[in-house]
Amino acid sequence: MVTGGAGFIGSHTVDKLIDDGAEVVVVDDLSTGTKENLHPRAQLITMDIASEGISEVFQRYRPEYVIHLAAQVSVPKSLENPVKDCVTNAAGSVNILENCRLYGVKKLVYASSAAVYGNPQGIMVSETDPREPMSFYGISKLVPEYYLRVFGTLYGLKSTVLRYANVFGPRQGASGEGGVVSIFAAKLLSEEKPCIHGDGEQTRDFIYVGDVARANVSALFRGDGLTLNVGTGTRVSVNQLYKTMSEIAGIVSAPDYTAEREGDIKHMCMGIKQTTLALEWQPRFSLEEGLQKTLVFCGLDTIGRG
Known about the structure:
Blueprint: E1 2-3, H1 8-19, E2 25-28, E3 43-46, H2 54-61, E4 65-68, H3 75-80, H4 82-102, E5 107-113, H5 136-155, E6 158-164, E7 166-168, H6 179-190, E8 195-197, E9 203-204, E10 206-208, H7 209-218, E11 227-230, E12 236-237, H8 238-249, E13 256-258, H9 273-279, H10 287-298
Parallel strand pairs: 1-2, 1-4, 2-3, 4-5, 5-6, 6-11, 7-10, 8-13
Antiparallel strand pairs: 9-12
């Protein structure tokens, strides 16, 4: 079972699983995901993860493994509506965990976030660094990590927690931690000026979605009981990101700058040494390769002409 499997990261994960020969049922309320994203061999159940009906889905399909990706992924939306953010990300996750317990799921992989760290003190973030989220989104992604620990201790539920950096790639919407890439792509496509919050020197760790999908699948059979960062270990400023995208697309357009956003983190880069060892995994796509794939998907056929 892949929750959120019709969404951005979820649909790529489902593709990888089915390519590897798995039978996959997807639970998604389609609030941000779409049926068009879904692999034709995936079974879709349209349902909110906080719904009581989730137990019927588990009872019917009896999944052996669960990759839990469904979430409210926007920091601004979590600030606008913290209750809804909490219901989806915290209560909805507990609903999934409880049904994993009731129906004997062998292992759960939980998609957490770099947002749980807040504003890190050092340049590189490790899994043992303090968790001090600066937004309700960061809090609601952290809470299920504690539930997972206790579910493991009390009931033996196996799990691996993956804290994602800024994921980008085809099928991405404008929300989420890597949404800036899809926003920039849309602006380049329409030949409009993008808006950059703050001075653009804030840095992030941008990882291509195909690499994240591979980490998700690898974690089904490795890294039991571990919490692992999933990123590249490379810092990229928002200004540098836009410059690279502009050069790939062959479109030159200076951005507009506006005020910093509330709850935004200044610098974030993920240390992935433990992840590469535990999952026998490492990123395969460079930033430029991932951006080129993304821009081609978005319809920028001028790529390479600039």
